[in-house]
Design goal:
The chain contains nine helices and three strands, in the order H-H-H-H-H-H-H-E-E-H-E-H. By secondary structure, the protein is mainly alpha-helical. The chain folds into two domains: about 200 residues, Cation efflux protein transmembrane domain (Alpha-lytic protease prodomain-like, Up-down Bundle); about 110 residues, Alpha-Beta Plaits. Strand 2, helix 8 and strand 3 form a beta-alpha-beta unit. The two termini are about 40 Å apart.
């Protein structure tokens, strides 16, 4: 991610944090007027929004720092920590929301002024959805996991607000107060599930779990732009460092290419991926010489030292590109 993009993301996240704080105040004002458990659950999640937003802002500042001797791959991993903590906060809020609603089945609280609560909840839900939409888009564009996590969180908050509105409107029409607790429990379960998914995603990034979708994207790019000198690509691995990607692989080239020619082919592969795939990608490429059995799948028509006729073309797929083995051997 360039310095310009990093600074723009930090400014945008700072704005989101300020708006989130205002939304938090409005939600607690709504709860103060109504004493609705369902509205309280929505307000409590907004506390998590603000705390998580502040942590996301901090992580973006840390992640924007350049590589140094202590962090040769940069500081991007902190974004996974940010999204993981955000997920944990959300999950805990969901448990608390559901627990308080169960408690109030036995010790009910009078609910009133629902019309004002409905109006404020609708407004804050719309604001959160718009913020979440733009955060998610900016996060995807810059491959920022902290921004994508915050965006998904705000959008999930907006959807829970929509469910809350439906429940409040039903209570307003029927005057059945215990429905308030039912809505709060359902929202608590939903919010817990959102938190769990964020924790799962962050752990996958910290543990360098293979992103199959991303790897398939890279393979598709290489298949579509395949050069005749590229006999095969194998031992492909992708590691995420926040918005940055570290990719390494082995490429099999004709054995008779000199060092400069081999380097040029590796450079072409590097340039291809960085041009076609948006983001900050560091590519480490190891070149391997072809072997006699490579002739059977080699697509280089002008090879003068071929030992075997071409038998078939191997389509590059997950199973052969991830394997640490030359194709055809």
């Amino acid at each position: 991610m360039s310095d310009t993009v990093s600074k723009a993301n930090i400014r945008f996240q700072r704005t989101v944090l300020i708006i989130g704080t205002v939304v938090l105040g409005l939600k607690f004002f709504s709860w103060y007027l109504t004493h609705s458990n369902a509205i309280l659950t929505d307000a409590l999640e907004s506390i998590i929004n603000v705390v998580a937003g502040a942590f996301a802002l901090w992580s973006l500042v840390i992640a924007s720092r350049p590589k140094d001797t202590d962090h040769p791959y940069g500081h991007g991993k902190v974004e996974f920590l940010s999204s993981g903590l955000e997920g944990a906060f959300i999950a805990l809020a969901g448990v608390y929301m559901a627990g308080k609603a169960v408690y109030n089945f036995f010790y009910p609280i009078e609910v009133h002024s629902l019309d004002i609560g409905i109006a404020i909840t609708a407004f804050t839900g719309i604001v959160n959805y718009i913020l979440g939409f733009y955060l998610n888009k900016k996060g995807e564009k810059s491959n920022s996991h902290a921004m994508m996590a915050e965006g998904k969180h705000l959008q999930s908050d907006a959807w829970s607000s929509a469910g809350l509105l439906a429940g409040l409107f039903l209570i307003f029409l029927t005057k059945i107060i215990w429905l308030d607790n039912v809505v709060a429990i359902l929202l608590g379960i939903y919010i817990f599930y959102i938190g769990y998914k964020l924790i799962r995603t962050s752990l996958a990034g910290i543990m360098d779990e293979a992103d199959v979708h991303l790897i398939e994207e890279l393979i598709a790019i290489m298949n579509e732009n395949r050069r005749s000198n590229w006999v095969d690509i194998h031992n492909l691995r992708v590691i995420k460092y926040g918005s940055k990607l570290h990719v390494d692989c082995h490429i099999t080239l004709p054995w008779f290419l000199n060092l400069r020619e081999s380097h040029d082919e590796a450079e072409k592969l590097d340039k291809l991926i960085n041009t076609q795939k948006q983001g900050d990608i560091e590519f480490f490429i190891h070149t391997d010489p072809c072997i006699p059995t490579s002739c059977k799948i080699c697509q280089k028509n002008d090879c003068t030292v071929r030992q075997f006729a071409v038998e078939h073309k191997i389509e590059w797929k997950l199973e052969n590109v991830l394997s640490n083995k030359k194709h055809g051997s």
